[in-house]
Amino acid sequence: LRVNQDEPMEDYPLKVEGGKEDDSSSGTRRFGMGQTTKDQMRTNVINEIISTERDYIKHLKDICEGYIKQCRKRADMFTEEQLKTIFGNIEDIYKCQKKFVKALEKKFNKDHPHLSEVGSCFLEYQTEFQIYSEYCNNHPNACMELSRLTKVNKYVYFFEACRLLQKMIDISLDGFLLTPVQKICKYPLQLAELLKYTNPQHRDFKDVEAALNAMKNLARLINERKRRLENIDKIAQWQSSIEDWEGEDVLVRSSELIYSGELTKISHPQAKSQQRMFFLFDHQL
Question: Which GO terms describe its biological process (predicted)?
Answer without folding.
Answer: intracellular signal transduction
